Amino acid sequence: MAKNTLSSRFRKVDIDEFDENKFVDEQEEAAELQGPDGAEVESLLRQGDMMTAFHVALRNPPVNTKNAVVKERAQAIVLRVLTSFRSSEIETAVRSLDRNGVDLLMKYIYRGFEKPTENSSVILLQWHEKAFAVGGLGSIVRVLTARKTV
Amino acid sequence: MAYHSFLLEPISCHAWNKDRTQIALCPNNHEVHIYQKERSGWMKIHVLKEHNGQVTGIDWAPESNRIVTCGTDRNAYVWTLKGSMWKPTLVILRINRAARCVKWSPRENKFAVGSGSRLISICYFEQDNDWWVCKHIKKPIRSTVLSLDWHPNNVLLASGSCDFKCRIFSAYIKELEDKPAPTPWGSKMPFGEVMFESSGAGGWIHDVSFSASGNRVAWASHDSTVAIAEGGKTPVVASLYLETLPLLCLTFITENSLVAAGHDCYPALFVYDAERSTITFGGKLDVPKQSAQRGMTARERFQNLDKKATADNKEAVLESLHKNSISQILVLEGDKAKCTKFCTTGMDGGMAVWDVKVSSQSVMSLPCLLTLIFCIMA
């Protein structure tokens, strides 16, 4: 047996990194949005102004950044707003969004599905139902095919 | 509107001859079958066997009556009718992955093949060597080319590929033709020049189509969007986010409107408003027959609640004409400027012919109204 079969370090090499035909997304020059302002959202929720909190939470989605911390923070803020809505108000909130807003909401909802907590799934499913009624299958397809995730 | 079920397998691709009496299609295998329209249906008259892999693209040149086919065996063949037999001529594409789509140019002196080798082969016949030669367009394509469409000037070629971009290339071959006149997409057109590139945000581009004048190009993307770009100094792009499943094929039927179909199994109309740069959904072109609503017994209601968690009586049956995704759409009558008939084939092995009637009530700023007439095939 040849000597070099003893070492298995080669198995840890990621050969995709060395593939010269590897597809790399173009670096866009767009500004790196840092996610919604958590403090502002908190104060609006305390005042009971759900709709404004909802719209503020959907601002500045961190789609262009690769920073996981920023994305986690944005996801937490949005989830907080979504869970503080009453079931009856969800539909009016969804209707107040434009097409891009509905797509963005869908992205956050599916992101929320990834890490289910105690009550989050139930409320997220209610949001999903209302968002699906407006956005249709197309909005879900756009979540699946998006290169820039929220 | 007429529907004929050819096979139980998907129809991979199809093409029509000039007078629309014969259709060449690939029944999801290595062969091409040519059917002739008889009074009582369709009869298979030829079987073209030469490919070693699935035939992924067929195009039938109307004037010169030649068929070009390309397949996953990395080859393309040009078929000419000699007497009553179709004789193939191999075209070496110099690709190392499957060929995916093929289109004759408007003047039929060259054809383009898109492949998984991340390049487009432009093939033309060299008289001296009595042989088809090909030139490659490689840069800047980064993934499989899924669809191609030629501009009416025989030089520009639109391509949609899996790197999420629609591009317009120049396929100018100086041995074949004179320098083309300037177009809204640009005036300098050396071979391989990129005249237009869409922004790569979105999904794979399944199909591209030039309008009849060549001034507009439309593409359908896998993220359930359809977009149209208008040529000019800075091309203006309008896009529409759909609420349905992604579209797989599209074609212009007038300068302002296009018909597209895909995984939802029905063709849909889209209207382009050039002034406002918007695309609007014009409606489904498939009118399902009204299924009788019969009442439900209480037992059925409870059974539904138990099985499906809903008390509705909606049956899980597709009401559209095609029972599976529509993968290809071709203009049959009229050209892309004033189409009166178009044809769709799909994964259900069926082919449907649709009639389009243009009612001439066009107000200057509004697009033409399109209504449909259904005629059942006798």
From TrEMBL, chain B:
Pfam families: WD40. GO terms for cellular component: Arp2/3 protein complex; nucleus. Keywords: Actin-binding, Cytoplasm, Cytoskeleton, Nucleus, Repeat, WD repeat. It comes from the Eukaryota. It is found in: Cytoplasm, Cytoskeleton; Nucleus. WD repeats lie at residues 48-82. GO terms for biological process: Arp2/3 complex-mediated actin nucleation. One of its GO terms (molecular function) is actin filament binding. The keyword Ion transport does not apply. Belongs to the WD repeat ARPC1 family. Component of the Arp2/3 complex, a multiprotein complex that mediates actin polymerization upon stimulation by nucleation-promoting factor (NPF). The Arp2/3 complex mediates the formation of branched actin networks in the cytoplasm, providing the force for cell motility. In addition to its role in the cytoplasmic cytoskeleton, the Arp2/3 complex also promotes actin polymerization in the nucleus, thereby regulating gene transcription and repair of damaged DNA. This is Actin-related protein 2/3 complex subunit. It comes from Scleropages formosus (Asian bonytongue). The gene is ARPC1B.
